[in-house]
């Protein structure tokens, strides 16, 4: 029980006639990097949606930090240390890079409307500390010289990093990454993988969805394979990937995999 | 004070106005399905239908039916023009632009109506000879009301036939539901949109011709009528033609019945209150529609 | 990169001083009066700029809040003879409360549906204002309202009024800008962009949209309260759709996401309106055409609102020594 930041128990979700998730059991321990792979349509993003609260499961339970969050609305889950990114990098085009990161800090019990309007000392100090933290994150991700650029002026790799940066700005204990290597070539992807590896630790666990299995094999502590909403295999990457079944599933997946 | 007969009587007259609301609602839905735009100028098409008929008769000396036909066609063409000149150029711009564009069309239309027809309310002679049909129990329906209902029902049937049986009708449907698919098959979204505007404008105009003998028409009556048509469409279940019809009738009856319990001046607010009520209680509308749910994302 | 404690720039100070001298230089009373009207609209448009420009919600119903504010002032200070400052406070509070009451439900609607519902708001307001005759004076409204008096000083001349209104406008502008440059403003923009993303960031779109709504209603209400003091009368007809549409038009002209744009747009359109009022009958159609032309050819407005934001973190490319910079 202790040390599990995320637990899914028997989670099922249907959409109309389609069973997106069927009796999923999955857990992420503190400090772990867990990878979630499978062909398109396997239910991976749905799983993220259920964990983050954008969808509600039909059956089963979701526990964050040991607490059942089924009844917790999506916008309260970050208070429990949850952050996630999206497949199509949801960046706010009107804001520049540093502002995109700052967006991740909006929630952290900020000053209210009136105080913000009056720009009190508290507000100013908040802005300042948020900016410092945003820059720390940018430096960590190697983006500090792009801070003032607009989102459409940076590369795909940088956009992915901004997405991750925004998640980090939320000071999560569990970060869900939906295809962080999407649209990246091998070299770029391994840069991102290296960053992810350096980020994870006792304070931050990662659950990663992607198709680049080779990278995930090296990065992840555990690997789970999803297909048609069912958990086909789960365990140490080498072990899981050695299974024939899994080989064939992933081969299919690799052929069908694209930028999401 | 309020007897059952009064209630029934109100209900029946409510059906009449409800039928016209149904037509306005259909106009809304048609454009929406073809282009995902909500035409806030819809009510002004209604207004034009009535006003142009009046003008046709008084200034051009046309006989009633001909004036009405000309007005309907003319309004349809105006709708078409609006689509080509305004909607088409802004088709890819953000939402607030298209909302304001339909408002701009509305302002231009009602502003032009102000210039051409002045501020005084106009009316038309009744469609049917005077007289009433008694339904028993002290309730009677004026033949005018019956005529209105009849025309509406005919139009609705015709409309249904058009959209489900003819090629262009089905094309419009397709363009609405699956854009890419429609493009691939060679259905031009642009053409569908043009058609939709023409049809909606014409439908609205017919509603106008039917309403004007009952309630008078003024250059700025469009906004309120549009609102009622919209409320009707939501009440019945946004996005479905059957819903538009049902919603219109229900709204008409409810509005009419409300006269029994609240002062007449509040009548126009009833539609909005009903709209809010439905949205609060069952936003799918009476017949159920996913459109609003999806719009909630 | 630096965070500024006070967002007012030197240029702005010069501009404000110039603007403050303007009414003394151009001393014609009609000019003052028109600028006062422009100021009233500017206040309403500012609120709308936050609601529509930042939080991304459409409203064509804000004239209802203006009207609520105006009538609150009229009833409290006129009929009930309370001090005008109390009336002014009420003119902000009453619409704010109303917005808070209906906001939650209303803002569940999106896009077109919201727009139409806000149109309905205007209808309801006008109906209520007409029907509750005892309170509101019915169709004719209320007359002979008192001038605004501050510490016994009555503001009955256009010169005084224009300073009052634009003083309030500028304060409102500062407040709004502070708000929009802070985390709050970013939160609004996130909600406008994608509600689901907002939720995953820990923001409640419902709460934020409602707050933006209340904010804009308070601004509009204050504008209405001042309206009542300046025109000394209120009537249902004045606060109809025409006014609402004009507010949105002003917003678009200035640039949807821009606060200074709201001010500029208000001034421009007010002058246009005054100019056209000579041709009373033509004004509606001409406005409609101008709106259409704007939308087709110039939708971004003067300050290029759509896509631009008046966020005042000093824009510069960060340098290696950013730590040193920020520690100051």
Q: How are the SSEs ordered, and which strands pair?
A:
The complex is a heterotrimer of chains A (260), B (297) and C (328).
Chain A: E1 4-15, E2 18-29, E3 33-37, H1 44-52, E4 59-64, E5 67-68, E6 82-84, H2 97-102, H3 113-118, H4 121-140, H5 156-169, E7 174-178, H6 186-199, E8 205-209, H7 213-219, E9 222-227, E10 230-235, H8 237-242, H9 244-256
Parallel strand pairs in A: 3-8, 3-9, 6-7, 7-8
Antiparallel strand pairs in A: 1-2, 1-4, 4-5, 9-10
Helix pairs in contact in A: 4-5
Chain B: H1 4-35, H2 42-58, H3 64-87, H4 95-117, E1 132-136, E2 139-142, H5 143-165, H6 167-177, H7 179-185, H8 189-215, H9 222-237, H10 241-258, H11 267-281, H12 291-295
Antiparallel strand pairs in B: 1-2
Helix pairs in contact in B: 1-5, 1-6, 1-8, 1-9, 1-10, 2-3, 2-4, 2-8, 2-9, 3-8, 5-6, 6-7, 6-8, 9-10, 9-11, 10-11
Chain C: H1 10-25, H2 29-54, H3 62-79, H4 84-106, H5 111-131, H6 133-136, E1 148-150, E2 153-155, H7 158-181, H8 183-193, H9 195-200, H10 205-231, H11 241-254, H12 259-277, H13 283-297, H14 322-327
Antiparallel strand pairs in C: 1-2
Entry keywords:
heterotrimer; A: 260 residues; alpha/beta; six-stranded mixed sheet; 9 helices; 24% strand; globular; C: 328 residues; 14 helices; 70% helix
């Amino acid at each position: 029980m202790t040390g599990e930041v995320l637990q899914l128990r028997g989670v099922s979700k249907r959409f109309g006639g389609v069973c997106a998730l069927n009796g999923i059991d999955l857990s992420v321990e503190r400090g772990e990097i867990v990878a979630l792979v499978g062909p398109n349509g396997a239910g991976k993003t749905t799983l993220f949606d259920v964990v983050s609260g954008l969808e509600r499961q039909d059956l089963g339970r979701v526990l964050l930090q040991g607490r059942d969050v089924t009844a917790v609305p999506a916008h309260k889950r970050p208070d429990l240390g949850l952050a996630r990114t999206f497949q199509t990098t949801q960046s706010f085009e009107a804001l520049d890079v540093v502002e995109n990161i700052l967006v991740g800090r909006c929630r952290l019990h900020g000053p209210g409307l009136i105080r913000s309007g009056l720009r009190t000392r508290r507000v100013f100090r908040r802005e300042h500390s948020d900016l410092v933290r945003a820059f720390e994150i940018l430096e960590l991700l190697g983006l500090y010289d792009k801070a003032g650029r607009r989102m459409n002026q940076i590369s795909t790799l940088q956009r992915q990093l901004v997405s991750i940066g925004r998640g980090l700005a939320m000071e999560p204990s569990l970060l869900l990454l939906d295809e962080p290597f999407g649209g990246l070539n091998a070299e770029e992807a391994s840069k991102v993988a290296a960053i992810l590896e350096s980020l994870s630790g006792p304070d931050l666990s990662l659950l990663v969805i992607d198709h680049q299995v080779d990278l995930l094999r090296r990065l992840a502590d555990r690997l789970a394979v999803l297909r048609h909403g069912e958990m086909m295999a789960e365990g140490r990457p080498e072990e899981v990937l050695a299974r024939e079944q899994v080989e064939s599933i992933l081969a299919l997946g690799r052929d069908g995999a694209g930028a999401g | 004070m309020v007897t059952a007969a009064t209630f029934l009587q109100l209900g029946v007259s409510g059906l009449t106005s409800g039928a016209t609301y149904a037509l306005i609602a259909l106009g809304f839905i048609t454009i929406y399905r073809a282009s995902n735009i909500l035409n806030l100028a819809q009510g002004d098409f209604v207004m034009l239908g009535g006003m142009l008929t009046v003008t046709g008769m008084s200034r051009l000396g046309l006989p009633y039916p001909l004036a009405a036909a000309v007005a309907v066609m003319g309004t349809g063409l105006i709708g078409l023009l609006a689509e080509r000149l305004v909607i088409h150029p802004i088709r890819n711009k953000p939402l607030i632009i298209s909302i304001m564009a339909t408002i701009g069309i509305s302002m231009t239309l009602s502003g032009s109506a102000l210039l051409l027809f002045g501020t005084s309310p106009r009316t038309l002679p009744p469609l049917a000879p005077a007289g009433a049909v008694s339904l028993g129990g002290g309730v009677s329906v004026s033949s005018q009301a019956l005529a209105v209902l009849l025309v509406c029902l005919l139009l609705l049937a015709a409309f249904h036939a058009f959209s489900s049986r003819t090629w262009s009708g089905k094309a419009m449907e397709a363009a609405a539901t699956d854009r890419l698919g429609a493009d691939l098959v060679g259905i031009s979204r642009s053409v569908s949109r043009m058609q939709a505007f023409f049809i909606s404008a014409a439908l609205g105009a017919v509603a106008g011709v039917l309403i004007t003998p009952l309630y008078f028409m003024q250059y700025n009556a469009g906004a309120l009528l549009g609102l009622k048509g919209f409320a009707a469409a939501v009440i019945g279940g946004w996005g479905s033609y059957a819903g538009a019809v049902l919603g219109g009738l229900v709204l008409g009856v409810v509005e009419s019945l409300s006269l029994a319990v609240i002062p007449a001046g509040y009548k126009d607010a009833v539609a909005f209150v009903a709209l809010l009520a439905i949205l609060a209680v069952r936003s799918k509308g009476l017949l159920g529609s996913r459109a609003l749910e999806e719009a909630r994302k | 990169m630096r965070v500024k404690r006070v967002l007012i720039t030197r240029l702005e100070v010069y501009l404000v001083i110039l603007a403050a001298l303007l009414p003394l230089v151009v001393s014609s009373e009609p000019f003052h009066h028109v600028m006062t009207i422009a100021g009233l609209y500017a206040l309403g448009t500012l609120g709308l700029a936050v609601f529509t420009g930042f939080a991304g919600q459409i409203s064509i119903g804000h004239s209802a809040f203006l009207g609520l504010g105006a009538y609150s002032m009229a009833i409290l200070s006129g009929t009930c003879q309370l001090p005008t400052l109390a009336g002014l406070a009420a003119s902000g509070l009453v619409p704010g409360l109303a917005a808070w009451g209906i906001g939650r439900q209303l803002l569940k609607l999106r896009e077109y549906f919201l727009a139409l519902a806000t149109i309905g708001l205007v209808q309801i307001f006008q109906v209520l204002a007409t029907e509750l005759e005892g309170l509101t004076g019915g169709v004719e409204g209320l007359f002979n309202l008192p001038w605004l008096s501050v510490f016994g000083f009555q503001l009955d001349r256009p010169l005084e009024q224009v300073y009052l209104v634009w003083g309030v406008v500028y304060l409102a502008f500062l407040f709004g800008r502070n708000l929009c440059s802070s985390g709050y403003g970013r939160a609004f923009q996130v909600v406008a962009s994608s509600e689901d993303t907002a939720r995953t960031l820990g923001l409640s779109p419902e709460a934020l949209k409602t707050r933006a709504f209340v904010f804009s209603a308070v601004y509009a209400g204050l504008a209405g309260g001042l309206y009542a003091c300046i025109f000394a009368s209120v009537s249902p007809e004045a606060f109809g759709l025409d006014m609402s549409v004009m507010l949105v038009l002003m917003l678009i002209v200035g640039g949807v996401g821009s606060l200074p744009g709201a001010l500029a747009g208000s001034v421009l359109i007010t002058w246009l309106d005054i100019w056209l009022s000579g041709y009373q009958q033509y004004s509606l159609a001409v406005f409609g055409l101008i709106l259409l032309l704007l939308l087709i050819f110039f939708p971004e407005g003067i300050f290029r609102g759509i896509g631009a934001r008046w966020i005042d973190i000093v824009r510069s490319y960060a340098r290696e020594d950013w730590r040193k910079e920020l520690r100051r």
